[in-house]
Amino acid sequence: MRVQAEPFRLAMPVALALVVLTVGGAPSVARATPCSSQTDVVFYAGVAGDATRLAPELAKFASSCADYYISIQPLSGGIPRGGAPLATIHALGPRFHAMAEIRLKPWAEYTGDNGDWYATGVHVRELMAQAGYDPPATRGRSTRSASPRVSPWASRC
After folding, report:
1. DSSP-assigned letters across all residues of 42-95
2. What average pLDDT is seen over the chain?
């Protein structure tokens, strides 16, 4: 079954990207000034492959005063996805960060079997490391979703 995104769910990330690029866009080549403030910009790439397309487009107009966090959909069973999306984001430099999308349902089922959310969190972090995520670069950042139809949100631990 293919889930189609509703128009407003597509319009919001595009509008946010335009605002960020307009308000905090790249500094002028003629007068590059130090940043007066740092901005963290978070994008939810809702469909597999979106992160691979979105990240290079953001990099074309990246601000030196912003860090870009882009979610990557998990594999079946909630396992963090590595591969091409992760490599694409990592290749764009230190201001681009991949976030593993964490879906609660598969991990709640896993936790129900072992009874320990802390152990589940440790296991998920191990899977993220195996997939190629850089824990220091993503510390405190994840996306979570109650179901594939609910937009996740960025969180700080």
Report:
1. EE---STTHHHHHHHHHHHT--TTEEEEEEEPPPGGGPPP-HHHHHHHHTT-TT
2. 73
